[in-house]
Amino acid sequence: MSSARRSRSSPPTEGQAAPAALPRVLKKYPNRRLYDTQSSSYITLADVKQMVLDGEDFEVRDAKSGDDLTRSILLQIILEEESAGAPMFSTQSLAQIIRFYGHAMQGVMGAYLEQNLQGFTDLQSKFADQSKGLYDPKNFTPEMWTQFISGQAPMMQGLLGNYLEQSKTLFTQMQEQMGKQAGALFPLGGFGVGKK
């Protein structure tokens, strides 16, 4: 056993912080089956989706090469969700996302979407905290959610106002970053920028 492995499993000494829990490892075999090393059993994509919903930290590794396949498995779950029931993304929004691949602003757009999604998640969490005890989440359908939100106009206006302000700030930061990048690429005001 290597010293790195031994140090992970040994208890922390006095004054030493406990090591962070390692993510659950799932192995993907060539036959497309997923193996959960924690439970020592094969699992389905639905099981992986449940891990995501439960907030479990995991990673998917190729059984032979050890390559990280977590993103591809998450994309596969999104594809299944988009194909069944009511999709989250319209055809137009998917086309817009595709157009940013290979574009100079791909990294900026990725960061913008990630921060915006985190802001929306925070908003949802605040809303859930404020409305605890008002409903049973197990019985809350999308239709009931719509009715509930329509009855919460003042509170929602405040929460959405904060979310929109945060989104506006993120967009402004993205524009400033674009300006800096353009300035670095065209320091003399190329393409007529800044010329009279």
What is the strand and helix layout of this fold?
Elements: H1 3-9, E1 24-28, E2 34-36, E3 41-43, H2 45-53, E4 58-62, H3 70-83, H4 91-100, H5 106-130, H6 142-150, H7 153-185
Parallel strand pairs: 1-4
Antiparallel strand pairs: 1-2, 2-3
Helix pairs in contact: 2-3, 5-7
Describe what you observe in this structure.
- This protein has 2 domains: 21-83, no CATH class; 91-187, no CATH class.
- Helix content is 55%, strand content 8%.
- The chain is built from 7 helices and 4 strands, in the order αβββαβααααα.
- A 4-stranded mixed beta sheet has the order 3-2-1-4.
- Helix 2 crosses helix 3 (70-83).
- The radius of gyration is 23 Å and the shape is globular.
Features:
196 residues; alpha+beta; 2 domains; four-stranded mixed beta sheet; 7 helices; 4 strands; 55% helix; disordered N terminus
End-to-end gap: 70 Å
- Which bin fits the share of residues in helices? 40-55%
Rg calc: 23 Å
Alpha plus pi helix count: 7
Low-confidence stretches: 1-12, 191-196
Strand content: 5-15%
* Secondary-structure content class: alpha+beta
Q: Spell the H/E element sequence.
A: HEEEHEHHHHH
Strands, count: 4
- Report the major sheet: 4 strands, mixed
Average pLDDT metric: 76
Overall shape: it is globular
Placed side by side, the strands forming the largest sheet appear as 3-2-1-4
Work out the count of structural domains: 2
